Amino acid sequence: GNSVTQMEGPVTLSEEAFLTINCTYTATGYPSLFWYVQYPGEGLQLLLKATKADDKGSNKGFEATYRKETTSFHLEKGSVQVSDSAVYFCTPMNTGFQKLVFGTGTRLLVSP
Amino acid sequence: KAGVTQTPRYLIKTRGQQVTLSCSPISGHRSVSWYQQTPGQGLQFLFEYFSETQRNKGNFPGRFSGRQFSNSRSEMNVSTLELGDSALYLCASSPDRYEQYFGPGTRLTVT
Question: Which of A12, A76, B1, B35 sits between 20 and 30 A of B19, alpha carbons compared?
Fold first, then answer.
């Protein structure tokens, strides 16, 4: 089955710093890749996705590129804000339903 | 479109009791999945319903059950509650059994 490895964190940054959260995965076939974000006290929100190799997903200043050769989908943002403090989850998913497989998630703390 | 809604948002129950959680998916979404989130185990898949049929099931005991109604609304039931069932229960709906949209969750505390 699919699996995900993420840096657990917390990742602690100052406002306006550059962010990278690493994600590597194992999956059968050619999955789509998703990043979800969970703000304190809330459910998960879909942040961005990429459906095939070399695709770049982007949303709210966040970007991630589907790297098939390294089975990675690292999340980046050029300048983080305090409001980005949350837990970030990377997950692969194949077409046709499969349960989403989540890693531990990476907690990001951004200080003013 | 309104998002996924879950009721209640917070619940406190006693060991041995049973509980029912409700999820209303996004309009037009026929797939509903349930996940349990705990600090120790992280996010774990419980089950998925599509067109009123359970299509997939995670590794949880039979005390955890669910159902889906003809309007795609889903309920999850946990019987004989244990302390370890304390968790955030998340529901997700999908238009295509692929991309999933999560609700805010129901936080269950078992005392």
Answer: B1
Q: What is the DSSP letter of A67?
A: B
Could you read off the pLDDT tens digit of each residue along chain A, which spans 112 residues? Answer: 788 999 878 999 999 999 999 999 998 888 899 999 999 888 999 999 999 999 999 999 999 999 999 999 999 999 999 999 999 999 988 766 667 788 889 999 999 9
Q: How confident is the model at residue B74 (pLDDT cuts 50, 70, 90)?
A: very high
Q: Are B75 and B66 in contact (CB under 8 A)?
A: yes
> Given an 8 Å threshold on Cβ–Cβ distance, is A43 in contact with B4?
yes
Contact A46 B42 (CB under 8 A): no
Is A100's CB within 8 Å of B98's CB?
Answer: no
- Give the max Cα distance, chain A: 43
DSSP B76: E
List residues of chain A with CB under 8 Å from any CB of chain B: 32, 34, 36, 42-46, 49, 89, 93, 95-105
Chain B hits for A8, CB-CB cut-off 8 Å, are none
Cis amide leading into A40 (omega within 30): no
The rounded distance, in Å, linking the Cα atoms of B49 and A105 is 25
d(CA A112, CA A88): 20
